[in-house]
Design a protein that fits this description.
By secondary structure, this protein is of the alpha+beta class. Helix content is 22%, strand content 31%. It folds into four domains: 137 residues, Tetratricopeptide repeat domain (Serine Threonine Protein Phosphatase 5, Tetratricopeptide repeat, Alpha Horseshoe); 255 residues, 6 Propeller (Neuraminidase); 87 residues, Sandwich (Immunoglobulin-like), CATH 2.60.40; 115 residues, OmpA-like domain (60s Ribosomal Protein L30, Chain: A), CATH 3.30.1330. The radius of gyration is 30 Å and the shape is globular. Keywords: Membrane, Signal.
Length: 629
Amino acid sequence: MIYKLKVFVLLLLLPAAIFGQSKSEKKGDKALLKGDYQEAIVQFKNSKDKSASVARKIAACYFVLGNYEASERFYNSIQEKEKIAADLLQLSQMQLANDNFAAAVLFAERAGELGADPNEVQVQLATVRKWMEFRSTNQQLQMNPIELQPKGKCLGIFLSPEEIVYSETGTGKLKSAKNYKLQVATHEKLVFSSPQAFAAKLEPKTDIGAICIAPDGNVMYYTRWFYRRGKQQMEIAIAEKEKGEWKSKESLAFCSRKYSCCYPFLSSDGETMYFSSDKEGGYGGMDLYVSKKEGDKWTEPQNLGKRVNTAKNEIYPRMLSDEQLWFSSDGRGGYGELDLFFTSKNEDGTWTPAINPGEPFNSAFSDYAIQDVPEVGVQLLVSDREDNGLRDKIYWIKKEAQERIQLFVKDASTNELITNVHCSVLKALDKESISVEDKGMTDGGFSFQLPVSVLDQGILYEIHLKKSGYEDRVVEYYPSTQKKRVEVKLDPINKLPKFSFASELLPIAYPRQKISFQNIYFEKNEADFSEVAQKIMDRLSRFWKEFPELGIKINAHTDAKGSSEKNLDISLQKAEKAKQYLVSKGVEVSAIEVGAWGEAFVLNACTAEEECSEEQHQENRRIELIFVL
């Protein structure tokens, strides 16, 4: 799947002094300050200076423009020794937005090694975990349009236990200056009545929408659109119900002619308002703000901060019943124009980094104005994903009922359960990966969940099984109401060498090359590992604790000096010693497999017959640390 990546905080790239810069770089800096990123790229590329700082500026410009492939290419063009922590954190964010969680963690850890703020690194690692957890627990969701729909474009919805209020443009070209009008329909568990005009006499010549109503039902806050000096602006106005009619009052005191305020949302007690504004002092575009009600007045709005807001637009804030704040943004990694994100408050009042919930919440178009209906376990949102963005529709999303499928893996010769098997399940048609419960890896049992709707529908799934010492197997599985327990037998491989590479190893992309993890080197007669080697294994152990479902393969090699039998023994000792070190750092013994190869796989031509330098022999005295996915 292809994602669009957009910058959420523009890096402070411009140098404090410009002495020594070429004319092109100076022009590039000026264009960067003006926000003309295409021109900045042209000027920076024309610069004779091909330093890391120029490459970094080009990468950041491409990032803002959404050309993430070019951005990643320029970040990776910076030599390893010249990379800074900010580069690696940015690369981590790119990998996260592409659902490459392992690489996102590795980049974040490397940023920590280069001096990144430890708190920032931990926040990034926690974000990766939360992102994975949400995707894992929300894999099977149903999404469909509701029966009631706006006739054209929509400025959002407001849902109460009895009613839904939404805006619509209607059909055809409107003759009046008012393009948007409000509609209301009653509902019982999302079964809707026919829509009626809502607050029809409220500002009959002004576009209004994106409303919220106070808990008592007598005060409404709404967004009104108007043009001032040829520029469209928005403000949040108040209406009160008098004798059954909505009467317009003044706008909120914090609104101004100098900036826009829009898309208000009230907390369930009516005492807190979230909204969007492009007032000065923000991070760029529309930012999210919060204001508290004190008596009859609202406090000075507070910006929600850089973990929520970006250099572009954050709009339509909605606090759902689980106390998660959802909003739409076009300024961070996503699927299309406006994507939905959510965040929650920490105990200290700060906000957690925003999480993209993925599909089906988000699409290649705009998705926004989410609200939940906890009574029926459903969420509503507005999207223009159909009709190429020409029309908005209201959709409901809910978790589909699931059926758990149990899988047991046995040895074909002994009929005994096999432990530590690598199991994956794919939907055969589109290769969609199905989450597998890994608790059974130690006792031979697995389980995964499928939607009830796929039972007896003839949909094919593939169960892929891999285990060192056994032949790989792919099992075709058609789920049915009768077949919820599956037994699979693996055939052992005869005459395996004592140590062998596991054919099922899938190396991690880090960043563009297929690598294991990292090699460590040792002197032939060295009793203990060097400080450098220990740091590498420390980092591996920390990564494994983040993802304990991974296995670890240790392959030890020696140079070709001396007898082959002695070298094989040395490699086995080194492999076991590395295993003991990782176990001492908290890695489970069952997660580690060792391989000893002696001089069988030298990396150069330094065999026993060749005369080589000590440095060349040193290249071969290595331990390969590999993750098994």
